[in-house]
């Protein structure tokens, strides 16, 4: 079974007070090579502003490579065939500006930010693109107010003075999300967000993401765990061997035959309360 998104209808969103139909992300025929291996092979994908999209696939399928490509940690391979990569309609971006528009939450950043800095310092460091606050950083009262508002939104304000290396994984993950929120990004990009979290922290993180999605922040999530796909995500893209396998409505993609082919194993799928589970 193959599900495709015919016509790539984009969800308009508010941008600078106006409704914009410019896609958040547009890839056309993009290939990425990591060493001798082709990690992404001729990928074409469009994600609209305000969309909540899950990118699903087995380990090694190219999901994380796709996220690193969008965040400019990796670049496409030059090739004779026409290809393009645009974010908000532009092919060229200052990295600091780009990463303030697209808040990145990854396990790499988790490792960098979990150290002897307070939660407040980690959130404030989002203004400077650093890890922690340094003596030459000029933190304004407006910055601190914004940081504290982000922490209030994620219910972690009471942990502002605690060192992140003394927090649970779930608490530290929410501080990393708060760090991304200080620039009021148009979307959050999350790479395997529930890795290392226990059951309670996983539930709390999913509730946090649902809250942000309802506030209008786009959520783009890479995962291989179906229950990570929050109810607000109505579109699922699957990747297999570096290529887009399926792209469509969640109810159509999250079917036993589609997932069985994707993960190369027989599965049963159960939907309960807007969440999907594999049996």
Write up what this structure looks like.
This protein has 279 residues and is an alpha/beta fold. The protein has a domain at 1-88 and 228-279: 3-Layer(aba) Sandwich (Rossmann fold). It has helices spanning 63-70, 95-101, 107-113, 119-124, 141-153, 169-181, 199-214, 250-253, 256-263; strands spanning 13-15, 18-20, 25-34, 37-47, 52-56, 84-87, 102-105, 187-191, 218-223, 235-240, 243-249, 269-272, 275-278. Strands 7-8-9-5-10-11 form a six-stranded mixed beta sheet, sandwiched between helices. The chain has a three-stranded antiparallel beta sheet with strand order 4-3-6, covered by helices on one side. A two-stranded antiparallel ribbon has the order 1-2. A hairpin with a 2-residue loop joins strand 1 and strand 2 (18-20). It starts with 12 loop residues before the first strand and ends with a strand.
Sum up the structure in keywords.
single chain, 279 residues, alpha/beta, Rossmann fold, six-stranded mixed beta sheet, 13 strands, globular
What are the SSEs and their pairings?
Blueprint: E1 13-15, E2 18-20, E3 25-34, E4 37-47, E5 52-56, H1 63-70, E6 84-87, H2 95-101, E7 102-105, H3 107-113, H4 119-124, H5 141-153, H6 169-181, E8 187-191, H7 199-214, E9 218-223, E10 235-240, E11 243-249, H8 250-253, H9 256-263, E12 269-272, E13 275-278
Parallel strand pairs: 5-9, 5-10, 7-8, 8-9
Antiparallel strand pairs: 1-2, 3-4, 3-6, 10-11, 12-13
Give the gist of this structure.
By secondary structure, the chain is an alpha/beta fold. It has nine helices and 13 strands. It is globular.
